């Protein structure tokens, strides 16, 4: 059913004439439609963000259990896995978005087109800013429960000149890139363009060979092969080049090695230039300067000319996440908001603040799990201080850990190297002290869960189900009955991530990595599998229909090559 079957709240939020909070800002109040006892008892639930995590939470919440307010600068949900397809017109931008209001309506919530600037934990207030018609307004939104799901932003790694790059995180990013690609092709055809300039215009450089960079390169190559060659002069083909710069020795290095190799050989066959073991030093408006490690260990500076540059080299904290992490002393992992296994923010008042999706990480417990495994394979016998672990035992342990915690398998692959690094006296065994140092390293460095849509959605759904139960419990349960006073733990299980594997589009081919050792990479069949998975994962029947039509249009008439 369409969401128009759900009733809408009558009143919008209103600004209270009373100001408050540390910054003395006006406070937004919920004007209840028809105040009754039930309404007064309901808690205010504020959700920050409108991405995978926030939207799967909003979809799972039962209507009317909370006074819900969802705050996000974008009033639509974006299906990011198809963003690379939108950069070349394989799908249209509006086919991969869904208006937030249609989703928030289902739980009778309010939506505010605004951004959260900070959280006052003591006063239970979110500081919010809205920009409309050039005017900035700041106010507080009060909460009883807060869910932070603001995602992450592109990591710049401090490289100078990134203002010359395109990013691929938002829909406007994809639209800008599509316009630039077509613009470069049109300019390359002008009689005023010299051959040298033409070559530069048609050189596309991708910095970062994770799934986003690789999928963009594959989509661009598809577009050239399937459409542009039919409509642009043949001469352009000789000048076209796609380069991928990667800091590691393989592309798609978070996937199984077999998939990396498959993707590499496919790209090499298609003439895509893979520049591995290279670090971007600087980006200029028409070139990327990088250093590359040679086989003899020597580091050489090189450059590649560029008509358009895509920057996709990982994630960093948003300003809001940064301010939260730095204001709570218990937050030790400075790369994301750390939560316990119930997704509650460490250091915030218990049961009031949750964090989910890319902005959050569940407190890493790989090392404690490793210790358990260690005990179970009897590697450690007797007194702790006498524990000795040989390299072979460590490998067995790592192998078991890889099978048991597939979500961490990529990180666990590095365990062999870590053993050697911590075997300070080169004895081939680790004593307890060395093991402790190694486990500390694992806890500090290895994040336990991937930053994917899959995880964000699972966390949103989990939290939605728990909040539904909490709303009932708050009314019906005697607080003295909670085990240790922990209501979350009493009424619901901790969050457990179920890894369904990762997919990557490789241009008329696709790859699947289950994370547990099963991999699949192939041509058309895999591509149709990739498409059908993303089709079924759509948030609404409406976007499913739009996507099906886009794919059909493309196969009949090709991509729309208009630049606007
Ligand atoms: P997001 O989806 O990024 O949403 C964050 C939301 O917070 C946005 O609505 C934003 O507007 C809002 N926001 C930001 N700041 C504030 C603020 N201060 N106040 C209020 N709201 C704010 N994952 C996969 O599993 N499979 C894939 O194939 C895949 N492909 C991808 C391709 C691309 C091009 C990209 C960019 C990502 C891809 N991902 C994929 C990763 C996936 O998109 C993210 O892991 C997922 O979006 C994380 O969900 P989230 O809700 O945490 O954050």
UniProtKB/TrEMBL annotation:
<dbReference type="InterPro" id="IPR036188">
    <property type="entry name" value="FAD/NAD-bd_sf"/>
</dbReference>
<keyword id="KW-0812">Transmembrane</keyword>
<dbReference type="Pfam" id="PF22366">
    <property type="entry name" value="NDH2_C"/>
</dbReference>
<keyword id="KW-0472">Membrane</keyword>
<keyword id="KW-0830">Ubiquinone</keyword>
<dbReference type="GO" id="GO:0003954">
    <property type="term" value="F:NADH dehydrogenase activity"/>
</dbReference>
<comment type="similarity">
    <text>Belongs to the NADH dehydrogenase family.</text>
</comment>
<keyword id="KW-0274">FAD</keyword>
<dbReference type="InterPro" id="IPR011992">
    <property type="entry name" value="EF-hand-dom_pair"/>
</dbReference>
<dbReference type="InterPro" id="IPR002048">
    <property type="entry name" value="EF_hand_dom"/>
</dbReference>
<feature type="domain" description="EF-hand">
    <location>
        <begin position="410"/>
        <end position="445"/>
    </location>
</feature>
<dbReference type="InterPro" id="IPR054585">
    <property type="entry name" value="NDH2-like_C"/>
</dbReference>
<keyword id="KW-0809">Transit peptide</keyword>
<dbReference type="InterPro" id="IPR023753">
    <property type="entry name" value="FAD/NAD-binding_dom"/>
</dbReference>
<keyword id="KW-0560">Oxidoreductase</keyword>
<protein>
    <submittedName>
        <fullName>External alternative NAD(P)H-ubiquinone oxidoreductase B1, mitochondrial</fullName>
    </submittedName>
</protein>
<keyword id="KW-1133">Transmembrane helix</keyword>
<dbReference type="InterPro" id="IPR045024">
    <property type="entry name" value="NDH-2"/>
</dbReference>
<dbReference type="GO" id="GO:0005743">
    <property type="term" value="C:mitochondrial inner membrane"/>
</dbReference>
<dbReference type="Pfam" id="PF07992">
    <property type="entry name" value="Pyr_redox_2"/>
</dbReference>
<keyword id="KW-0106">Calcium</keyword>
<keyword id="KW-0520">NAD</keyword>
<keyword id="KW-0285">Flavoprotein</keyword>
<dbReference type="GO" id="GO:0005509">
    <property type="term" value="F:calcium ion binding"/>
</dbReference>
<dbReference type="InterPro" id="IPR018247">
    <property type="entry name" value="EF_Hand_1_Ca_BS"/>
</dbReference>
